[in-house]
């Protein structure tokens, strides 16, 4: 396995961990859905999925996660605007 393959897999697993962690934390009421923490965990996690799914040719997943990143960044902008 090449170093590039290992890096792509690690980025994908990090992304999955962040999205799962964000979901667990919001479901447990530990963080709010409109919190910066939740949104950043989703943005970075989805970006990890974009890298992984794009590198593996899973274009529908890559596109979905590009949209996910966009929603998170838009929400972060809205949170900052409303503050």
TrEMBL record:
InterPro entries, A to Z: CBU_0592-like
Lineage, broadest ranks: Bacteria, Pseudomonadati, Pseudomonadota, Alphaproteobacteria, Sphingomonadales
Membrane-spanning segments: 6-26, 61-79
Protein name: CBU-0592-like domain-containing protein
Superkingdom of source: Bacteria
Statement: the UniProt record of this protein carries the keyword Lyase: no
Protein's UniProt keywords contain Glycosyltransferase: no
Gene source species: Sandaracinobacteroides saxicola
All copies of domain CBU-0592-like, residue ranges: 9-81
Keywords assigned: Membrane, Transmembrane, Transmembrane helix
Pfam family of the protein (one): CBU_0592
């Amino acid at each position: 396995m090449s170093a590039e393959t290992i890096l792509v897999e690690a980025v994908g697993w990090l992304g999955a961990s962040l999205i799962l962690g964000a979901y667990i934390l919001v479901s447990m009421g530990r963080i709010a859905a409109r919190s910066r923490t939740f949104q950043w965990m989703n943005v970075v996690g989805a970006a990890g999925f974009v890298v992984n799914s794009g590198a593996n040719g899973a274009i529908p997943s890559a596109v979905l996660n590009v949209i996910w990143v966009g929603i998170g960044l838009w929400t972060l902008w809205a949170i900052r605007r409303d503050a």
